[in-house]
Amino acid sequence: MDELGGYRELAPPARMIGNAVFIGMLFLTTLLERLQLQLRATESAKWWASNGRDAVNAFAVASMALGLKVIGFTGPMAFLVASTLVLLMSALQPSAQRAQSMVLSMALALVLGLPVLVAPKWVHVFFRRMLEVLFP
What we know:
Elements: H1 12-42, H2 49-71, H3 75-92, H4 100-118, H5 120-134
């Protein structure tokens, strides 16, 4: 299981910078998920919209993984946590096109990212244990 990467604790100044970068990536992912919802609306009329959604989601996962790497996650573990966060953000995204939906989306992103910000070691242990249960 060591080849799956892990988490290394950062010094407090580096951790603060890493947290700021991660929050920025959460908000970037929120914007990308909102774009993905707009593409879904045009998907039936434009043949490229479905592929565009896939590209937006891939970029969202990559940016989230980068944010996790800055915090201290390494290897495929960063990709696994990033994929899970993006999947949850996409599934729980408010679909209404109201003015408040962007605020709700950003609040949702912060709530989903809070465990990573507050207890990243616990998040790492949780995902590692889930992998051990799923793939003994």
